[in-house]
Specification:
Chain lengths: 267, 663
Amino acid sequence: MPATKGWVDVLLSPSPFALVIAVILALTIPIFLHSVVFRASGLTTLPSILLVGPSGSGKTSLLTLFERGTGAAQTHTSQSPVSVECHLPVGTQAQSDKYRSVNDPTNLVHKKFLLVDTPGHGKLRHHALNNLTNPQNLKGIIFLVDAAALSAGEEGLRQTADYLHDILLLLQKRMESKTAKGAKEIPVLIAANKMDLFTALPAALVKTSLEAEITKVRASRSKGLLDSGIGMEEDGEQDGWLGEVGSTDFKFAQIEEFDVLVEPKSR
Amino acid sequence: MLDTFEILTTSGVVLWSKTYSSVSPTIINNLITNVFIEERTLPGAGIADDVSAANNPPYKYDQHTVKWTTVKELGIIFVAVYRSLLHLSWIDKLVDNIKTLFVDLYGDQLKKPHTTVVECHFDEYFDQQVQELEKTALNQDTRTAESTAFLEEAPVSIAADPDEPPPLPGLLSRGQSKNNYRDLTSNDSTPVITPDTSRSSTPVNHLLSAKGGPKGSRRARKAANTPAYQSSGDESYAKRNRAAKASEKKKGRKWDADGLADEDSDTPLDYSAPANGATSGEEEAKERPSAVEEVEQSSWGSKTGKGQFVLKDLDDQVHSILASADVKKESSTAPSTGLVGSSISAIGGLFRNVVGGKTLTKEDLEKAMKGMEDHLLRKNVAREAAIRLCEGVERELIGVKTASFESVQARIQSAMESSLRKILTPTSSLDLLREIDAVTSPSALSLQKRRPYVISIVGVNGVGKSTNLSKICFFLLQNKYKVLVVACDTFRSGAVEQLAVHVRNLKELSAREGGKVELYQKGYGKDAANVAKDSVVFAAAEGFDVVLIDTAGRRHNDQRLMSSLEKFAKFANPDKILMVGEALVGTDSVAQARNFNTSFGAGRTLDGFIISKCDTVGDMVGTLVSMVHATNVPVLFVGVGQHYSDLRNLSVKWAVEKLLSSN
């Protein structure tokens, strides 16, 4: 009993040692908390647009075109993602700003956004998928396709549809799971590139052929073998069915209910 | 001659390029896919740091040879493309020199985030390097550069030698005032001295001083030996210098008429080199006061340099950059001395190991990498593949800073995980059903005729070829295909009967599902290739969707047995050749995969692996990695049990987790 009393005395007495410790703690804890909390939240990032698409569809070219404004740089196969800061021309109004006055001075400055390029090579697609699973202020996705490589029965169409299917399925799952905090709709623009080539398909045909091919992807995925890792951890990982359950043909319109807007455009 | 030289980032943007004759961009694209992404030639090549171009294996594609080198921290790649017919020995040196120059000149621009634009006016530098190296190569065909160049060439090209350090401070001040180049003054005190003294023992300087003429050397010697006098009589010295300049100028102009690029840089070297000669003559005088030397050189250089040729500035600048880079490299390789310093750094290292923010070196990684290698070996990864993986990770990690509160071990773990994932992820999707559909019911637009899809299965004896074939058959039958099973094992007794039993079972199982399966067999002793060929014709006539061909098991290092595979591949012409490998096999898996992969003749390789008996090895699924490592062919299926339904697609995540789990 006296021993414990002695301890309590020592602990509560205003010894210089205890004072020093208290001061150090008092000074460091706020700094520590600050670094932890603010590192987690990150800096306010610019709104970003993600460029995805199979290899050779012209993602990096488009990126440099947007950045430089005058002409696209010569490019080769990408190995790493890159993001550049782009400006919208003065006077363009973002949709979120539609209630602002026309004379608002903020309309007179360039609006900045980040354009994120991802590698399209099969082994490196995890960069793009990572960007989708934990997006930072992601405002939209541009899925670039090579319109000249999309004719029926070609390998290019198969690869493109595969990739697009994966991306759309990921977006759909993201919207289905309510756990994703602040899950906002992410519109997808399918941009048909290389329209100057002779074999390029027009936008409407790009849309229908992609839809038809995704129908096939969906069917064969549902029939295929199970993954070897099944039942490993996350409960069952049921393979998703993209679009309306039970529908025979896939249409981009079907996934609008998951707030995934898909719009094919060509240039 | 060089075809094209490009400087590009890892994100694919070409920063600068010089094209002499246009080459297809597919050459460089192929280099990137094969060497950097798929790492067919060199593990970890895409992320390796600062290896000289000579150490990187040249990549050959379509009559062109590509030489390359990378800078990891900036993420840029230097690529030189030339015709394979030409033997250009100086390309390595060119690529290395250009790398040093470019990084030095534009390094800080490259570090800027969120931009791909690099303002560069690199043409002059490049042209200068090309001319210089070409000339050196011409003057001495077979011998290597450096020492021999001095003896054979006129003083003109002595000045041109990249290793000779030019008078640095003078030209730098000029460079700053005129061209606004990057400020280098911070590191010129070392470059001036060190190369000089290291050079002075070679015969070069004696030769130079002899050639420089008595006038120049005397003046230089005076300048070097009487610094006090020099600083006081600065004006007279400068005057004399100018006079000398005038007399030299005539000479220089005469050389100019020859059309050679670098002769005018002779002037400054004419002074500096004899100075070296003087110091080398007197061994004791080697350790002259560096500060004094620097001051006089700078004053001297800036005065003579007024209104001189631009080309000269460029030349000197290039040399100074190269020389300073050399010095930097030397100083970085030199071991740090001093007991106190090393112990402090050791303690700091331990501390950082816990807190993070430590820059990794080879020594830090060595022990941990050994542990990782042992771990992989315990997981039944073949030694060759384990070493390759570890080397790749090591190359990737050297020079990398660990994140805060991240230990070295954790960093290695995560790097190995991404490395394994990269090696196992297939390049293109492996959807067998869609491929079959594309062949058996081609779309009306494509001009292909309907034909059966042919899959053949090869492998060593007893790995489960027939079992896996029937598993695939079951999977196809469930998807309502008409399947023809072909018994091409015409060698082992009982092989045909074994397949017949499988087919009978499958028929019963799939009767309700609507699939149809038949056996095609011609008994024993026939040539397997002919049987296979006939069966494909038969299947096309009878309207089968898929032909599954079973082959005899063969030892992969038996040349006689393996040679028949080439004929087989030619006759049957399968859409997919799958090799069955068992998960139980250890180191031999690499040789198996490699031998089978090369046995089908030119232009035909394996299309996929089936790794059988994965249920019998638990976590030790290293064979997956070994086989993919050896051939770059993806794993299509894994067998996980005894039943027809125990066939699975490979989940990369599952495999990586098993391989890295510790127990």
